[in-house]
UniProtKB/TrEMBL annotation:
Pfam families in alphabetical order: SsgA
Coiled-coil ranges (or none): none
Cell compartments where the protein resides: Cell septum
Family: Belongs to the SsgA family.
UniProt keywords, alphabetically: Cell cycle, Cell division, Septation, Sporulation
Gene Ontology CC annotation, any one: cell septum
Any single GO BP term: division septum assembly
Subcellular location, principal: other
Name of protein: Sporulation and cell division protein SsgA
The organism of origin for this protein: Actinoplanes digitatis
């Protein structure tokens, strides 16, 4: 699960582990020409979420369930 233990991502989406006095978190940074957003998620919550999603769609088999390029193109076209 890339990004949980070391920085990951390039361009507009970046993820990295973030230790705070409140506990271990994962930071998620999104950027676009229209603005930026920074989210922090408790690491344990994100790990549970990812494990559940991998049961539904196994890691590495996402393209069998979703054409990401087509979905992004539809979003960008406003459809």
């Amino acid at each position: 699960m890339t990004g949980l233990d070391e920085p990951a991502g390039i361009g507009d989406v970046r993820v990295w582990p973030w230790a705070t006095p409140r506990g271990d978190f994962v930071a998620l940074a999104l950027s676009s020409p229209d603005g930026n957003a920074l989210f922090e998620v408790p690491r344990s919550v994100l790990v549970r979420f990812l494990r559940r999603t991998y049961v539904v769609v196994p890691r590495g088999r996402e393209s069998e369930h979703l054409d990401v390029d087509a979905a992004v193109n539809r979003l960008l076209a406003g459809r």
